[in-house]
Specification:
The complex is a heterodimer.
Chain A (H helix, E strand, L loop, with lengths): L4 E2 L2 E4 L5 E6 L8 E6 L6 E4 L13 E6 L2 E6 L8 E9 L3 E4 L3 E5 L1
Parallel strand pairs in A: 2-10
Antiparallel strand pairs in A: 1-3, 3-7, 4-5, 4-8, 6-7, 8-9, 8-10
Chain B lengths: L2 E5 L3 E2 L5 E8 L8 E8 L6 E7 L4 E3 L7 E6 L4 E6 L8 E11 L4 E7 L3 E5 L2
Parallel strand pairs in B: 2-11
Antiparallel strand pairs in B: 1-3, 3-8, 4-5, 4-9, 5-6, 7-8, 9-10, 9-11
The chains are: A mainly beta, B mainly beta.
Chain lengths: 107, 124
């Protein structure tokens, strides 16, 4: 079965750039999306098709995907960005697969 | 405006069958490319995909739980129902339904709208 791996936690200072990675075999050949989940809330899609932002998602969120790694980048990180972030892809054998999540802390 | 709402029992006993209903609005499950998926999240843990039903009534299940899950839809009522048999305390968590946009030509699917989630506790 297909697996996506994320680092458990990332810390960043306000105003700095945060990078959250998601790795999987030949992940660059799949489309990746990213979800943000704050405590007590439902996940919210913030990136789809590797690098597209849904309406209403701030420009500071961007995505890339190449090789075995997809990256969510948050430029000028704000305190409100503190949340859990999940990557997700579709695999023909596993169907929907999520990464294990990364806790972003803004110190 | 797309909305989804989960409903079902908050408490089930071990070995019982859980039935959850997702009632949605703002889209039709007859539309090619649109699906409804169920995802769960144990307390403090990661998201876990469970099942998916598409516009053509095709069903997809996570391998580890396939024998316990059934997903179905009632298009006239805009509802999708998930049943999970033989519930165990480890199945405790929040169960979400979400709309999936699926593009078979790209082998791509993303969950663009989510319900608020339903907390299910399995305990005797």
């Amino acid at each position: 079965s297909y697996e996506l791996t994320q680092s458990p936690s990332v810390s960043v200072s306000p105003g700095q750039t945060a990078s959250i990675t998601c790795s999987g075999y030949k992940l660059g050949e799949k489309y990746v999306c990213w979800y943000q989940q704050k405590p007590g809330q439902s996940p919210m899609m913030i990136i789809y098709q590797d690098n597209k932002r849904p309406s209403g998602i701030p420009e500071r969120f961007s995505g890339s995907n190449s090789g075995n790694t997809a990256t969510l980048t948050i430029s000028g990180t704000q305190a409100v960005d503190e949340a859990e972030y999940y990557c997700q892809a579709w695999d023909s054998s596993t169907d929907v697969v999520f990464g294990g999540g990364t806790r972003l802390t803004v110190l | 405006q797309v909305t989804l709402r989960e409903s079902g029992p908050a408490l089930v006993k071990p070995t019982q069958t859980l039935t959850l209903t997702c009632t949605f609005s703002g889209f039709s499950l007859n539309t090619r490319g649109l699906c409804v998926s169920w995802i769960r999240q144990p307390p403090g843990k990661a998201l876990e995909w469970l099942a998916l039903i598409d516009w053509d009534d095709e069903q997809y299940y996570t391998t580890s739980l396939k024998t316990r899950l059934t997903i179905s839809k009632d298009t006239s009522k805009n509802q999708v129902v998930l049943t999970m048999t033989n519930m165990d305390p480890v199945d405790t968590g929040t169960y979400f339904c979400a709309r999936m946009n699926f593009h078979s030509e790209n082998d791509e699917g993303y969950l663009d709208y989510w319900g608020q989630g339903a907390l299910v506790t399995v305990s005797s």
